[in-house]
Amino acid sequence: MIAARSRNALYFQSGGVTAVINATAGGVIDAARSLAKAGAPIGTVLAARNGFSGVLKEELIDTASLSDEAVLRLRQLPGGAFGASRRLLPPYDERPDQWDRVAAVLRAHDIGHVLVNGGNGSMETARLFVELGRRYGLDITAVGLPKTVDNDLLDTDVSPGFGSAAKYLATSMREASLDLAAMSGGARATKVFILEVMGRHAGWMALSTALAQDAPGAAPHLILLPEVPFDEARVAAAVEATIARGGYCAITVAEGLSGPDGKPLAVERDSTTYGHEQLGGVGPWLADRLQARLGVKCHCAVADYLQRSARHLASRVDLEQAWAVGAAGLEWSLSGTTGVMVAIRRLADAPYRWDLVPAALEGLADRERKVPADFLTADGLHASPAGRRYLAPLIAGEAYPPFSHDGLPDYRWDCPPVRAPRLPPFAL
Amino acid sequence: MIAARSRNALYFQSGGVTAVINATAGGVIDAARSLAKAGAPIGTVLAARNGFSGVLKEELIDTASLSDEAVLRLRQLPGGAFGASRRLLPPYDERPDQWDRVAAVLRAHDIGHVLVNGGNGSMETARLFVELGRRYGLDITAVGLPKTVDNDLLDTDVSPGFGSAAKYLATSMREASLDLAAMSGGARATKVFILEVMGRHAGWMALSTALAQDAPGAAPHLILLPEVPFDEARVAAAVEATIARGGYCAITVAEGLSGPDGKPLAVERDSTTYGHEQLGGVGPWLADRLQARLGVKCHCAVADYLQRSARHLASRVDLEQAWAVGAAGLEWSLSGTTGVMVAIRRLADAPYRWDLVPAALEGLADRERKVPADFLTADGLHASPAGRRYLAPLIAGEAYPPFSHDGLPDYRWDCPPVRAPRLPPFAL
């Protein structure tokens, strides 16, 4: 038997980063090393610098120079260790030049496996790599590794990154509402706390704060999701009733909260020229509305990047899943699997059991998983028992990063340099 | 020798709460129990419900019903366990009726010691208690226990609460800037991250994020304090230069950032009717200005209550100091000390050594400790080595709260009911 020729794997991080996306990178690299040691035909893992941009620019980081310890440290590092970007591979007809370039890069670096770590749009890019391989006669496999704090990827129980954001947000809501509770006595005191969280079209992160509620009537009292059209009079009445009942009201609002016309209520900075509109500002907007309408003093926090980078409060379940999808992606690629995303399948709620199964990449980009109606209470303003049952296991367990003697998490990590290019430059 | 008659202690939490203010309560109660066991003439600790309001309303919580374990759990509980308020004791001439009432409450509950846990304004209330004792012929001691995330109390090295807020903010800045770094590649990517923190007149919390900077050129790149008048052209130039140098720019801005005229740049919701103006919104405001001026995409987080309630990331040094000032306050009171605040004195920077000394309550309310010029770099946009030397020890050590199996910090704590009143009601 002639041993198969060892070929390299390409890995890149695509779209917004998370507190645990680097654990997926670690899973990929660690699996490649273990398999190579066992004699499998796998070379080095090349990580593209700044996501797909680095593929086009042939900026590839050879992870072979990383010590095993440095690979393990990827587990505890928030942000994107190799950089990320929102750039995706366009369809062939739009940019044949980019397809030519990608094929050349894959050939020049003897890449046999492509692992795309991202969300909906990135899964389409992974799918196009399969097409690219076919079109250019390249013998490659392409596998998607799910990642998104938004949790809007279909066909997987959860997307790595979400559980840690959820744990951070639920903890923050619980803590801030204890502050609010202490300060809300007296007519002139702050009565409303609003936590604005990410979620353009899907309210998973907002919904996750429901887990902070440890008793009936505890915070959060209202959760406002993009899936439920905002009805100001109804929400104001609910806020007023909550204050009358318990003295204060804690609200979670998703950045993408929309009116009955389906349009987001607040667009902080219109940057349609950047492709995405940058949402934000719905928290302060809501505070103003409630203050004007009810005459109550409101406080508002905007979590922004904090919610997707808070590695100091990562969910252990999320961290394990992030690592596992990376390792499985590399293993499956090596065994010839292609055109799939590594999906997490739930086997049981409590105790939570899960395994990994392939899900077709086809069509993932076109469909967004929104919060289903049965995960919400009848009024659409809180999580139902089914919703809580879904969410609960995803934030279980702690996984603190090491703290230095200076009292801060130690996130030092030296990214290796990019490989010397083998092709002429390519203008983006 | 005739044993002195045991008298009760009154404790209340005043002003905004912190992640560790309840540790001070725990220190008070624990010291009272230990001393009582050793035969000292101390009765029970009565905690006023909702701060000074509870004194006027005769809403006093007898902490005798708390188990020793429940007292220890105060160490790990954010918010204000007994409630807090911003209400203070006015001068006698303004409200003689309130002075009469307070004297009646002290007499009715045989209170011999008053412990006021708060910031500048609360220290003045503590001082007025001394005057009240004199005026009404009551044999009481009154001691102030420092507390403020703002760290603007004079005559103490630091105020409990600040160190934990600082640790949370520096960690958050470090984490969010790793996110920013990963996402900032490409012309259209986000280049600026702004973290808005509390600090109306003093920039200590903003300054504390300097500790996130673990190498020259690392985030945060700019720190904008109330003490340094905002010069938009100069800041915009610094942002541009930072982006040109390293690709992105992370900025901390204090809510009270002011223009050359000394007026805050952003007043989110004008609520002067509530006494304080509620500041906020300077982060989004700055993002808009930079976006308009430099054409760069900006993200902005507003920490709000999260920064003063994040017990999950408390500083161990801060927690120990919070407990210690409570215990010392009770001990000193019992030995007859009155009219002082329990101040923390720094004996050495590294390793940090400190002890507790009395500081006169007189005049504390009128003076605010601002960030001194020598704690800033020459351009006023970052911490100097002296500033870092001051800040560094205050965030040292972790002190995680227990997490339940549900993945969230366990902050359950049952507040005992208020004592049956002994006086007729008093209308506030």
How would you explain this protein's 3D organization?
The structure is a homodimer of 428-residue chains. In chain A, the strands form 2 sheets. In chain A, strands 1, 2, 3, 4, 5, 6, 11 and 12 form an 8-stranded mixed β-sheet that branches. The radius of gyration of chain A is 23 Å and the shape is elongated. With 428 residues, chain A is an alpha/beta fold. The longest helix of chain A has 22 residues, at 162-183. In chain A, α5 (120-135) links the parallel β5 (111-118) and β6 (141-146). Chain A is built from 12 helices and 12 strands. The two termini of chain A are 44 Å apart. The first copy, chain A, has helices at residues 21-37, 52-56, 68-73, 96-108, 120-135, 162-183, 204-208, 232-246, 282-294, 306-309, 316-334, 385-391; strands at 7-14, 42-48, 60-62, 84-85, 111-118, 141-146, 190-197, 222-224, 249-254, 297-302, 340-348, 353-360. The interface between A and B is large, with 85 and 85 residues.
Task: Walk me through the topology.
The structure is a homodimer of 428-residue chains.
Chain A: E1 7-14, H1 21-37, E2 42-48, H2 52-56, E3 60-62, H3 68-73, E4 84-85, H4 96-108, E5 111-118, H5 120-135, E6 141-146, H6 162-183, E7 190-197, H7 204-208, E8 222-224, H8 232-246, E9 249-254, H9 282-294, E10 297-302, H10 306-309, H11 316-334, E11 340-348, E12 353-360, H12 385-391
Parallel strand pairs in A: 1-2, 1-4, 1-5, 5-6, 6-11, 7-9, 7-10, 8-9
Antiparallel strand pairs in A: 2-3, 11-12
Helix pairs in contact in A: 1-11
